[in-house]
Amino acid sequence: MPLRWDEFIVTGDPFILAAQISIALTSIIAVVALTYFKKWKMLWTDWITTVDHKKIGIMYIACALLMLFRGGVDAMMMRTQLAAPELDFLSSQHYNEIFTTHGTIMIIFMAMPFLIGLMNVVVPLQIGARDLAFPFLNNLSFWTFFFGMALFNISFVIGGSPSAGWTSYFPLASNDFSPGVGQNYYALGIQLSGIGTLATGINFIVTILRMRTKGMSLMKMPMFTWTVFITSLIIVLAFPVLTVALAMMTFDLLFGTHFFTLQGEGLDMLWANLFWIWGHPEVYIVALPAFGIFSEIISTFARKKLFGYNAMVASIVVISGLSFLVWVHHFFTMGNSAAVNSFFSITTMAISVPTGVKIFNWLFTLHKGKIRFTTPMLWSLGFIPNFVIGGVTGVMLAMAAADYQYHNTYFLVSHFHYVLIAATVFACFAGLIYWYPKMFGHRMNERIGKWVFWIFMIGFNVCFFPQYFLGLDGMPRRIYTYLEGDGWFSLNLISTLGAFMMAAAFALFVYNIYYSWRYEKRDTTGDPWDGRTLEWATSSAIPPHYNFAHQPEVVERDAFWDMKEKGIDLNASTDYQKIHMPNHTWLGPVMAFFMFAASFALVFSWWIPAILSGVAIFVCMIIRSFDYNDGYYVSVEEIEETERKAKEA
Ligand code: HEM
Ligand SMILES: [Cu+2]
């Protein structure tokens, strides 16, 4: 059936029109600027086709910051709508779309890529490796994520956004109740980026198992690397469930099957179960690396070894196992027997034990430490009490009988924001600031950074703390307005003010990126924080593409600290050997582009273009399998030259 153009381009809403105009303008400015400054070639060779884990990491983080902005704008619009009773800033349909895109974007396209970006930058350095085990795959993973993100995001200007919530429960998400292409975007956009995430998981498992430098046994790995390892295992076990569930959803939406619909043999609860069998482990995918980041930072700025390393490792292993056994706590009220609810109630509460162990480990690491209150440390210290608030209210929600009271209220909204923001977002900020000098050769300004921290921290509590009481007072989630007589006005207004404080802090953070680039002193040591782990041992502020001129050898945990104590200088010797490095690849971005084209065509049920793009993907795979090029050598002269420059600086 032919599509009318006004069904293709979204029209009629002033916000969306403004967004369309600003997207068009930004694109034009970008193209003109790239052409004017002759940067196209640089963009292609240095970034788009790169396999360097550090650059790929930076690209992930840049996208994540952009998505934090987009998801944040969504959040501000919702909070504006809810600031007072019976406002009509957003229509009910528009509100539904926005909470759906906000939730999906924040989890899939902000939290995960932000952490994956930090993992990319840091893990190979921490284990003394040259790159990830599969550099080509890493490039491909990034581009599938990128195009998945692009696909999901264009829904709001082309075709219309999904509006069935980030959980997309059936039957609401079926064609009967969600007409239009929005839901197709949801299924295909997440699918596409999920492929990248799955590949990233495999990549990190192999990297951490196979590429550690001499002497680094598993129990000598930095804690961040440990959490990335366990997270990758969770990814590999959980993401296939999402892949299958989304494929089934796609079949229901596009080909009229009845896996989840109410007709035929369809089971709507099957979707809810599959979604959360992935979805709860997903919570740990975005939480464990955050714990790793805090562990590194707290130990660095307390100038002490991490307290209870073994207990910490054990607790993340236990958490990862339990994370697969709790999914039903997301729908205690949706018709399970008392026995089932009790089981999942107990497993959920059990998770708080290893999590509590970790909190004590951090506190004991701080105990009698020589604490330096740098900005990364402030975020890490701020995390502890806020995360405890999120965790304790989680245990409250875990009581199945009590959950009948708070289910789907603002109590829940507040709980998961406390967990996701205090753990994941705080960790993303902390980690970015902490490793910023490794990526860009200078720190972020500390004075502005501290302002950002305090404004955000206070705004966060002003925004979300009142929501616990709104929830207890019965305000349901996902409502676009409420009545004056409900008595929810003042707390909602306070909450909205807090939200705008967070937005202001984010703006200041972005300004700090600019300010620091202009005015901050360049770091020449490569070790600006007096670090403990190997990423700080590279020869210059920004590590050269081969990372280490000499492979470090590890004797103790906190390997770099150990070297400093023993007076070993990794870069003293000038006796270099040539280094084997992987080649750039054009195939990664091109293959991912065809996946995007195929998915976009499927969104609109354009079968012929979809099939053609599918063929193109297949051709790319064939080209790849006949690609015998296995990299090149960095010459001794080039290493000498690079290392000499680093020393002179
Ligand atoms: C920056 C401050 C943020 C504010 C002010 C904010 C605000 C909101 C609001 C107003 C809702 C809709 C509540 C409803 O009507 O039910 C919501 C939902 C949600 N938020 Fe946030 N949010 C923020 C950050 C985040 C972050 C960082 C994440 C994840 C990492 C996140 C994940 C979610 C999810 C998953 C939902 C549920 C969406 C759904 O119901 O389908 N939010 N948020
Ligand atoms: Cu859960």
TrEMBL record:
Chain segments annotated as transmembrane: 15-37, 58-78, 98-122, 142-165, 185-211, 223-249, 269-294, 306-330, 342-366, 378-401, 416-436, 448-469, 489-514, 586-604
Topology of this chain in the membrane: Multi-pass membrane protein
Record's keyword terms, sorted: Cell membrane, Copper, Electron transport, Heme, Hydrogen ion transport, Ion transport, Iron, Membrane, Metal-binding, Oxidoreductase, Respiratory chain, Transmembrane, Transmembrane helix, Transport
InterPro entries: Cyt_c_oxase-like_su1_dom, Cyt_c_oxase-like_su1_sf, Cyt_C_Oxase_1, Cyt_c_Oxase_su1_BS, QoxB
UniProt catalytic activity: 2 a quinol + O2 = 2 a quinone + 2 H2O
UniProt superkingdom: Bacteria
Main location: membrane
UniProt subcellular location: Cell membrane
EC number: 1.10.3.-
Domain Cytochrome oxidase subunit I profile, first and last residues per copy: 38-555
Cofactor binding summary note: Binds a copper B center.
Pathway connected to this protein: Energy metabolism; oxidative phosphorylation
Cofactor(s) listed in the protein's UniProt record: Cu cation; ferriheme a
CDD domains per record: Ubiquinol_Oxidase_I
UniProt keyword Transport, yes or no: yes
Role of this protein: Catalyzes quinol oxidation with the concomitant reduction of oxygen to water.
Similarity field: Belongs to the heme-copper respiratory oxidase family.
Annotated NCBIfam families: QoxB
Protein name: Quinol oxidase subunit 1
Organism of origin: Shouchella miscanthi
